[in-house]
Design a protein that fits this description.
Blueprint lengths: L1 E4 L4 H16 L4 E6 L3 H5 L4 E5 L10 H8 L4 H9 L2 H14 L5 E4 L5 H9 L3 E5 L22 H31 L20 E3 L16 E3 L15 H9 L4 E4 L12 H12 L3 E4 L11 E4 L4 H4 L6 E3 L3 H10 L3 E3 L6 H10 L14 H11 L2 H15 L3 H19 L1
């Protein structure tokens, strides 16, 4: 059994589902451990699931703290929010440790370092699987400062120290507390584990295209970045006929959706703003996650949710919040990106798409208006951006990131079996 520890939003789970799909193709039994609310989503792909069921009322956790952490516009705010929820961290750490039992290998999200120490305690390999580049390099800034700081030698070094410290501190206290209660001691070599993934039996895997951020030459050879990890959707998906009719009626529409970001109460006015921007741009659009705004017109089609792998093939541009998974899907589709970042690494994908000329200049959500969103939509439809985005899509489609990274894990297990 291979156990994958995951956390975050629906978009955060998708790369790990893709990796699990490929491991299953190699004949491995795989399960994903994560929040209870994503159980049916993961099960839909016929992946076994270990639900981390947290009763926030019993633990006396203010739900607004979870929302605050998820919408933080910098890692420090996210860390401070999570540090206010000590009981939440301790409980989930205990449950994630339980999920690791009876595994032959642990794959863990960088925000769940319990996976590293659990594997160490159980005497099995630990594989770090990150949805973004996170290891130290002199070649470019980390995803928490890219586009927001000048890329000097000192800033590059500091940006990775900051990224790794923030990720480590987010779970450090919970791991320490759980370990002392459960074992009466700290884990062996207790400390940030990310740079410890530097040998064949303890590799790191990165879900990122080498055409978006090229794999740095100064990484150790056991950090594997072979392309994005895309979910293989089931063949049974059938969109509503009304949506197909809308898409085919006139010129291709654009897509606008901000994922879980739009569902937060402080952003509940976004739907009306988006509709006004579409009107000003003169374009047709499919909007997702805003319900049914009162000011809808015949040139706007509202949906609740749909696989990006299907929808993005049928639109002329994609406007979204800049989540790593959504950004990857937009890049692969070969259409221009309009990214409105809300928090954390979303700023990096927004700035990177602009630097590669496959997207427009980022609009930070705090500066978002109907006027500047309408202007961005118009700019995204310029021929040079359309051509660059199309070329990027072809390149990304040539990579097989999930399959190639799954092979790294299979090779590791086969080597261990021979040695044992």
């Amino acid at each position: 059994m291979i156990t994958i520890l995951c956390a975050g939003s629906r978009g955060d789970f998708q790369p790990y589902i893709a990796l699990a799909q490929q491991l299953k193709k190699f004949g491995k039994q795989v399960r994903i451990a994560g929040q209870k609310e994503f159980e049916s989503f993961v099960n839909h792909y016929e992946i076994e699931y270990f639900p981390i069921n947290v009763d926030i009322e019993a633990l006396n956790i203010d739900p607004r703290m979870l929302e605050e952490a998820g919408s933080a516009d910098n890692p420090l705010k996210m860390l401070l929010a999570f540090n206010k929820m000590k009981a939440y961290g301790e409980y989930t750490t205990k449950e994630y440790y339980k999920a690791c039992q009876n595994s032959e290998l642990i794959i863990y999200h960088p925000g769940l370092t319990i996976g590293y120490f659990a594997a160490q305690e159980l005497g099995i390999p630990a594989v770090l699987a990150s949805p973004f580049p996170m290891h130290k390099t002199k070649e470019y800034l980390s995803v928490i400062t890219y586009g927001k700081s000048k890329p000097t030698t000192i800033n590059k070094k500091l940006s990775y120290q900051m990224l790794q410290v923030m990720l480590w501190m987010a779970g450090k206290g919970s791991v320490r507390s759980f370990w002392k209660k459960h074992f009466g001691r700290l884990p062996r070599d207790f400390g940030s584990p990310y740079e410890n993934h530097n040998k064949a039996n303890q590799p790191a895997l990165i879900s990122c295209s080498n055409y978006v951020f090229e794999r740095p030459l100064d990484w150790n050879p056991h950090i594997h970045q072979k392309g994005y990890w895309f979910v293989e959707e089931k063949d049974d998906f059938a969109p509503d006929q009304s949506l197909i009719d809308f898409i085919q009626a006139k010129e291709k529409p654009i897509y606008i959706g901000f994922g879980s970001m739009a569902m937060m109460k402080k952003h509940d006015e976004l739907g009306e703003l988006v509709v006004n921007a579409i009107r000003k741009s003169g374009k047709r659009a499919i909007i997702s996650g805003f319900g049914k705004p009162d000011n809808l017109t015949d040139d706007i089609y509202a949906i609740d949710g749909i696989p990006h792998s299907w929808l993005f093939k049928h639109v002329s541009a994609v406007c979204h919040h800049g989540g790593a998974g959504t950004s990857a899907a937009g890049f692969r589709a070969g259409v221009p990106s309009i990214i409105v970042p809300f928090s954390n690494d979303q700023f990096a994908w927004a700035h990177r798409s602009y630097d590669l000329n496959i997207g427009v200049k980022p609009i930070y959500v705090k500066n978002l208006s109907a006027d500047n969103l309408a202007d961005a939509i118009i700019v995204a439809c310029q021929p040079d951006i359309i051509a660059e985005a199309k070329a990027m899509g072809v390149k990304i489609q040539s990579e097989n990131g999930a399959e190639d990274c799954a092979k790294v894990i299979i090779d590791l297990l086969e080597k261990n079996n021979v040695e044992n």
